[in-house]
Amino acid sequence: MANAFGEGSNDDYLKYMIYKLPDDYRDQKLKLVPNGMEIETEYQEFLAAQIKSEQGDNYILETDAGEIKIAKKECYSRNPSKFDGVDDMSQLTQLSEATVLYNLRLRYMKDIIHTYSGLFCVVINPYQFFPIYTHFMINKYTGRRKEEVAPHVYAIAEGALTQMRDLSAQFRNQSILITGESGAGKTENTKRVIQYIATIAGRSNAAMGDIENQLIQLNPMLEAFGNAKTVKNNNSSRFGKFIEIQCQAN
């Protein structure tokens, strides 16, 4: 699985993992803050808007789609533009459903599918393949703290390995919970966690070099007993899955 996209490169890391603010984001900040709001359209999408005026309990807002009138109670405060596309949503000064979805959408529209929310890593299924599970990416996250690299499920796996190897904690067990609705990508992300752990373990123990393929090949057997086609997913896991990986100190 690690070779699915070849060796990978730093260009892939910069394109698919790093969110860059537009060059004119300072102008956007002056335009949208503090009067910037986010409104919910009929498509359940939150958009940035600017208050033009107030009419009782309503705002007259200027959006890219034109001028609209909307009740104040349906609006949400917007974060300063410098927080657009932020890696960790726990940094948002205004935290609401609107600001979370808005931030996730900004990143998703640039093909960046990983975003932190405190201790959690939110991964949006892009329904296409990105070269972000390569040998280069594994090396990029090996031995690095979560804060030193862009959000990735590999960073979560690396954090678990680091905690497990902590001598002061006497090699305490670690758990990674992967959850989401049907088609969210739980099975695929489980494979990526296994891929990372098996690859790192294989480097220090030649006998474990093939453990990654062994673990991945186990999935079709499990899927044969409990997978089914759904509206959102042609191969949906219809059962809970608990995987335990036992590691030695060396």
From TrEMBL:
Record domain Myosin motor: where? 84-250
| PROSITE patterns registered for this protein in UniProt | MYOSIN_MOTOR
Span-the-membrane segments of this chain are none
One GO MF term attached to the UniProt entry = ATP binding
UniProt-listed Pfam families = Myosin_head (PF00063)
Instruction: State the family named in the UniProt similarity comment for this chain.
Output: Belongs to the TRAFAC class myosin-kinesin ATPase superfamily. Myosin family.
Q: What is this protein called?
A: Myosin heavy chain
Keywords for this protein: Actin-binding, ATP-binding, Coiled coil, Motor protein, Myosin, Nucleotide-binding
Q: Which GO terms describe its biological process?
A: actin filament organization
A GO cellular-component term linked to this record: cytoplasm
Q: Origin, by domain of life? A: Eukaryota
